[in-house]
User: Fold these one by one.
Assistant:
Number 1:
Amino acid sequence: MPKKPEQAFEIRASQMDPLTLGYTDTNTSMKTQYSRPDDYKRRVETVWNDYQADPMFKFLLDRMIFFGINGTRWQVKNESEMEFWNEWARQINEQLNAIDILGGLDELQTWIFKSMMLTGMVPMKWEWGKVIVRKKTYNAPVNITVFPSSKVSLKNEKSVWGKDVASYEDDSVKFDKNSFILRYFSSPADMSASGKKVSTSLSNVKPSLYPEPPFFSVHEDIETRLQLREIDRSTVADLLSVLWHISVGDKDHPPIGEKKNAAGNVLQKSSIDSVKESMEGAAAKTAGTRSIYTPYYVDIKKITTDTSVLLNYDKYFASTLNLLYSFGIFVVMGQDSRLNFTDINTQNFEQIINFARNYYIRRFIENKLCAPIVRANPSLLTEIPSLRYNQLNTQTEAFRTALLELLKTGRMSSRIVNESLGLNNDYVVNDIREEQKKGEDGESISDLFNANVPVTFKQQSSTDGKPIETSDTLGTNQGGKPAGKKDADNQGTKEE
């Protein structure tokens, strides 16, 4: 029985490179359209290439990092130990005195977050040193670095759980007890799919020690976006290359050939040569209006690429939507069934950020760095601190309004409300304290503002039948003060 031919369509064509104006043959086949490498290093390189090639993908991932690493604070029961943890966080990598490295825990977390989101794995190593706070010397990791994931190999020859061994590409780095490989959303039972037919074949699914780069699965959509962008660039190149179609003569006025004398000298140019000379002369002008003079039977047409193809963004619709979905950003279709980006759900985007920073970065810092520090300084430290991240300021307006209502009833802290509004609570508190300080004239900034607030009086009855003046701007008795009065409280006011 003859073998059934494999079903696959193939396109062969020539494509012009708008930069070099050269032509290359293309061979696009469904057999290779969705191929994925089985090597972790190649997958990491693929995602990094996508990150640097697609502006939208880069923007979304950068924003995820900016929103996620927005400030932290320690929480400890023994407040006397807080000063050390703040100083240690400040001194991380500062002792290197490097010309190109910013110190601090926030900078380290940025490195971790970026590597984790792009590659799924963060190889780290640290060195211990001295941290001096109020003449007390603490032992702690002071120099902490992150290595490229694609340079690190993992092995577990006997498949013993918890016995993975890490090695660097050129053996220049030794991973020991002062090292850690942080793997994102990975388990010992994970498997990896690869090959040329990921969607149909199961023979290429196998166990893997490496995590899947979180955004590797969206590579095909990013590649589609980049190919569509090349179509637009090629269209622009075509617009710059104008084709003139010139018809000389018709059935009633055939072109006239050139006339020569017996010596072969041209006495009269042909119609085509005359028009060509006029066109080339007009094109040679660098500025101003170009003019050519031809007989009435010369028809000149300018042929350009259809600009509607260039201005049509609908072709990006599917791949862009899939890219947004990969970040947990869901776009609701409008009533006209069009993507108008007026109703966007970002709750899943926020949850991805919180999951990454709380479940991985925070636990790494507390368990792998803070806990050993406490064990190394038993006479100075008594508890492992808890690292708290500032609230995300990506919440909806309805969420913020609900927080403000809870704050009014005393069921919400002002810190969480300020952070949800994108404000630094410590800055707000310090500003309020500054405004409460009395100046040389005995007045504070708050006093000046209060004196300038228009006052509304509200009459209330009292037990002795005398009216009570209240002086809040809304007419409610909340402890305001009318101009020319001293303290106004629930018992009334007195004239100065």
Number 2:
Amino acid sequence: MSNNCKIKFFPGKEACTFRAWPAGKGLQMGDTEQKLHDSIAQEVNQIAGTDIDFYAQDTDNSSVDPLFREPIERLWKGPFKLKAFVEWADSTPEVREEGFRTSFASRCWIARADIDALGIQPPSEGDVIRFWNTPFFNESGLDNEPSPGKGYFFNVTDVDDDGHINDGPLFVGFWCTLQRRTEFSPERRIAE
């Protein structure tokens, strides 16, 4: 097999191009296949996804305490409008000496190509995502929690790349683990 083997399914029509890895150890996908996988990942979210607002931390322009490495003044980029697959936020009520609180755990999946198309940084720990900006959730709450209005805000607590093509370095999306707690609501962070 040559280094630039072209596979043709129809005479005169090039279906896909494969390039050999160094030392002939397998095949590497070309741009055509990556675009195909990206379009499939995006299409699912565009058809059945949930509208989200993505607030990314502006770590370059935020001021940080030199000793404790904690943010003094936090700056944000966004909100960026995206579509994502969002899992239902399960609530966990807790009664403690300090009082009652409710935690909500959820996850969302964002297509990498949507992030690339907007030219923004990928999601990372500490970012904020808002979803369910609907009349129901703007007026009422989950499990009798007062609604913050304008949807629910969640902290991004973990991000994993997902959808690796053929177990290679190319991937098509991000799984974001989300957390919302009633006593430290994420909308307070972006309002600072």
Number 3:
Amino acid sequence: MKIALTGNYGKTSIILNLAAKLMNVNYINILNLSYANLGIVSDIYKKCTTDFMRNVFISENWCLARQIQEEIDSESSNNITLCDQTILEPLGYAHLKGIPLFDYHKDFVKEWWKTYNYVFYLKNSSCSTFKYLETFIEENDLKVNYISSLKEMVDVLNL
């Protein structure tokens, strides 16, 4: 199972709090798992060694590739993966910086989106990056649950 959060600031805190909640309840039975390992994909942008100000195009593509790789790695060794962003964020930041987005980027995001069991959109900002994410989600009819708190997320997950 892969759960991701996209949208506004505060995603990492919510994902870490969700992880703590999952570790404190018997989520093995709740999610009908025979065993439970929990992986967290977090802070991709902090791991980027490329100077964002010098080459945003390379940085955003690196972040996109790193997000995908870390999700694959986590899923291969855990039966629950929590992500504090989706692969849509690098496209949003590239758009904000005026970097051209190619159709294959957009098509790939639409296909990869299907690998998430749940995507939650943390909605409480008017920043243009987040407006781009919202527009992309709506225009491409991507499955998403809009939330403004951890409680709403927990309610959707029935925890």
Number 4:
Amino acid sequence: MTSTRNDPKTTESARRYWPPTASCRETATWEASTASPIDRAGGLGVASSLIRGAFKSCTYTVRGNMPVSQCVIDYIESQAFRDTATAKTVFTRNKRHQIFATKIPGVDAELYLKVSHINADDTLLRRLNCSMRSLVVDDCLNAFRGALIMEEAGLKTLKPLACWVDKIHMLNRCSYFLFEPAACDYTLWNKAPTAGRLMSEESRKEWHRCIGYAADYLRALHEAGIRHDDPAPGNFLITENPGRQPEFALIDTDSVRKVRLRIHFVKSFFDLACTRRLALTTEDRRRFLMHYCGDAYNQYWWFVSQFWRLNLWRRIRGKKNPLGDGAYPARPPFSSPSRI
């Protein structure tokens, strides 16, 4: 791929170095290629990722096909993202990530800034593990790439704007992901039954309909050749449409990737691995699977779903399987998106 100087508004993705010294502004180039931003943002193997993480720090990727692209570039180059003292914190259950609601000059919408870093409260061994992992895996870059993949397939998700790396030193760096959140009235968890409370017949029917809509969304995702790996109920965002079917969106795009398997039967087997994260009762998981498989549903696919739910890798490592099969908790554990 060759790099040439172009107007950022005519390119889909851009990468430059910062802080913006005078020489950097003069020598900075915009990537110009027929490849999609997904290929340019995510087509990095382990070796090149390791080199980028260890030596090629302080880079950013900004979508250039948006009216606010220059505003985002100015925000990054001014390093205003480092000041999060006055920003509103958004709930997330992943200790390695923080999410802040932020405003950028020139952009009317409220944006979310995801920060991936080493948690100072973790044990020394855990911090060392995260440090070594960050050299190979960039969660914010993966989230940026995953959101682009889903957006290109016409699936509703958050709107990715930019990702960048702010490296402190070789074994401790921060990566950032800037995005516009998807519209949301509530999550799938908010419709779930709760222990100790009887549901009306209408509420139960509405819950069953939501399960079917979520299954339809996941089937469309897999039919597009995309795998998500974490369609937990808290990651399904629902927007009401009076008189029409509600709109569903799926967030937490860190693990989203395209699937290269072409044999349908084998692909379907591995696609069902996504369902292991569905924290539903046996009855509701069976209902979900029946919607997902449609006429192809049979007992075999139920056994496949149960196999993935065993989470054998966690058991081999001596860890407890967090996916129980009891009644729903006294209240939905995540009243807001579980991970972004």
